[in-house]
Amino acid sequence: MQIIRFADLKPQPWRNGGGVTRELAAGAASSGSASPEATSSDAGAWDWRISIADVTRAGEYSPFPGMERVLTVVEGELLLLAVDGTEHPLEKYRPFRFPGGAASSSALPTGDVRNLNVIAREGAFKAYTSIIELSKKRAHPVFEGQLGVLLQGQATASPGQDSAPVPLGRYDAVVGSDTQTPEILGRGFLAVVSLDPVTG
Q1: Least crowded by CB within 10 Å, which of 23, 56, 160, 165?
Q2: What is the pLDDT of residue 92?
Q3: Cα dihedral sign for 109, 58, 128, 178?
Q4: pLDDT exceeds cutoff 50 at 37
């Protein structure tokens, strides 16, 4: 079982000074799955990327032509996202999909926010973000091609029922697997990011 600890991630400042990004995982289509083995900050080196961004100032977002983005506010109240001139109010825990190449910018009417960002190359992967309320009675599995990110609360992860549970910190990520599938148990909210390879 692989756990990506948020506390170990190095913050990367934005070029415009409006925030910082911490990359959880990234990969290429050649790897065939959502494995965090291949990580890079170079947009040309990956076909998908999952990151958490702290947005502290209104401003433009970097374009990612040929990509699709799914943005979810995970901390803070409201983000006003403008995409190609149309404004979209994004509330907490409501994923929003938009073209990576679109002209986009944000405003912060209620203060700083923290976003979960998923970017996937069109024609290679289709990305989805689901927000799950955890239960202490029923564990939530994280399968191959998925990443489970603890957004809020207290939870543990274990690679099967007979294994000792490992405590998770806020924004820690559990890498999914179809062999010894990790299971997350606790109270709070979990973001499940799924990256489905596009075939055909």
Answers
A1: 160
A2: 96
A3: negative
A4: no
pLDDT tens track for 122-169: 999 999 999 999 998 999 999 999 999 999 999 999 987 677 899 999
Per-residue H/E/C for the chain: CCEECHHHCCCEECCCCCEEEEEEEEECHHHCCCCCCCCCCCHHHCCEEEEEEEECCCEECCCCCCEEEEEEEEECCEEEEEECCEEEEEEECCCEEEECCCCEEEECCCCCEEEEEEEEECCCEEEEEEEEECCCCCCEECCCCEEEEEEEEEEEEECCCCCCCEEECCCCEEECCCCCCCEEEEEEEEEEEEEEECCC
Among residues 65, 73, 51, the alpha carbon closest in space to that of 6 is found at: 51
Sheet containing strand 78-83, edge to edge, reads 59-60, 104-107, 78-83, 86-91
pTM: 0.91
Question: How many Å apart are CA 190 and CA 112, to the nearest integer?
Answer: 21
pLDDT digits (tens, 9 = 90+) for 15-29: 777 789 999 999 987
